[in-house]
Design brief:
Largest sheet: 7 strands, antiparallel
Shape: elongated
CATH architecture of the largest domain: Roll
Distance between the termini: 48 Å
Number of domains: 2
Mean pLDDT: 89
Strand content: 25-35%
């Protein structure tokens, strides 16, 4: 078969298992100067990744070009356009746009669609390796990765998404790094007032709860456990937050974004009294006015909580709920 250069544009496919960053709702902090030399990418660059060109800016599909058939035994990755934003590090959350082509034919298989919100992915060891590939890059960068589909995406994701690939097929993937958020609240520690549940944090920031052995308070209570130095949440903002929620005195959480998808969700900073997409009134009162980088503990009595019949799955109607929110950033609108 002769070598040729192809650009094939196909319809955008729905991404299910690959969309690790699906956003949720209940109805940026800077990380300082970066040193790329001190960070080691997951994959090295090589002769195959050097064959790929992808023009245009990050607001549109990359229109990648490469000679076909492109066959790669090893995974290679290189940054073809360096952004001027924050560096993405292990443990962070990255928002990326992903476009995948078949190496043999140049056919475009998947595009997250640059006119839509990108995938929000944890920068940790997991398949598909979208987050790990973004590690060490800076926001605004474009990265080309070439290698076996099974190694980059994971065999399970190929099957679940019904992609026309086998594990050994070579794919060409273009990753556009759109945003970076810290993986957990990074504000200054504060002491919570007595009578509230105690919160103990795992290394990744996931909270655990210990209850004081008293009845739940009848009124809204909240405390800032970590005070961030970022922007203040205003009414109408869309906050990017990790959340863990539990019923008062329960043994297990009913929601936990650290465990469920590993990524924070988007939350509109309005009360449900004003917007169908808003938060229960008590959560809106507790969160509006907090700052990015903060961690907030909230005890939500039913009087200012979810309206009957709108409670999240696993919540008993009329129960008092306890939340911990890590405020990681504000979504650009």
């Amino acid at each position: 078969m002769s070598v040729s250069t192809k650009r094939v544009f196909v319809r955008k496919l729905a991404v299910v298992a690959l969309s690790a960053g699906v956003l949720v709702s209940l109805s940026g902090c800077a990380n300082g100067p970066f040193d790329l030399a001190a960070c080691t990418p997951l994959y090295d660059s090589g002769s195959n990744s050097a064959l790929v060109t992808a023009g245009g800016d990050l607001s549109s599909d990359p229109e990648a070009e490469f000679p076909t058939p492109l066959i790669a035994k090893n995974v290679e990755s290189q940054t073809i356009s360096v952004g001027d934003g924050e560096q993405v590090n292990a443990g962070d959350i990255a928002t990326v746009q992903i476009t995948i082509y078949k190496g043999e034919t140049g056919e475009q298989l998947i595009s997250t669609g640059h006119d839509n919100a990108g995938l929000r992915v944890p920068v940790t060891e997991r398949a598909p390796h979208f987050g790990e590939i973004a590690e060490c890059s800076t926001v605004g960068s474009r990265i080309v990765t070439v290698g076996a589909a099974g190694e980059i995406l994971g065999a399970e994701n190929i099957t679940q998404n019904q992609l026309p690939l086998v594990e050994d097929d070579t794919i060409v993937m273009v990753s556009d790094v759109e945003a970076r958020y810290p993986g957990k609240a990074n504000g200054a520690n504060r002491v919570a007032p007595p009578g509230l549940p105690a919160v103990v944090l795992a290394p990744n920031g996931q909270p655990g709860f210990t209850f004081p052995g008293t009845d739940a308070p009848a009124e809204l209570k909240f405390a800032t456990l970590k005070a961030g130095s970022g922007a203040t949440l205003a009414e109408g903002d869309v906050a990017v937050m990790h959340v863990s929620g539990i019923e008062w005195d329960a043994d297990s959480t009913f929601t936990n974004s650290w465990e469920e998808a590993g990524v924070p969700g988007n939350y509109l900073m309005e009360s449900s009294d004003k917007s169908d997409r808003g938060l229960p009134p008590g959560l809106a009162e507790a969160l509006i006015g907090q700052t990015v980088g903060s961690q907030v503990l909230i005890v939500l009595p039913p009087s200012v909580g979810f309206a009957q019949g709108t409670e999240p799955d696993g919540v008993t109607s009329g129960s008092t709920l306890v939340f911990v929110f890590d405020i990681l950033g504000i979504q650009e609108q």
